[in-house]
Amino acid sequence: MTLYNTYLNEFQSKYTMYIPLTIILQSCIGSIAAMYILMNGLDTVSSLVQLFLCVIFTSFYNASILAQLKGKFVFNMLLLSLVFSALVIVLNAIQFY
Q: Which keywords has UniProt assigned to this entry (predicted)?
């Protein structure tokens, strides 16, 4: 069994317990990514696209929980949102400093 399947099964088995935890985690990471984007300024198209995608992925994750979609889709949206936000944080932190 792969690492992905292991965490997916764990997430699905304790879905209601993980909802508040992951909403807080994902929203905090997304807001930190948005902060770094805004600290670098919105003078380029790439920074506007980064901010747009960061907000969209964060909103899609929260919406997928509110819509009570399947656990696998919610888990995939969580991973997508966290990976994208972490990537944006790293790229913008390097540019800022």
A: Membrane, Transmembrane, Transmembrane helix
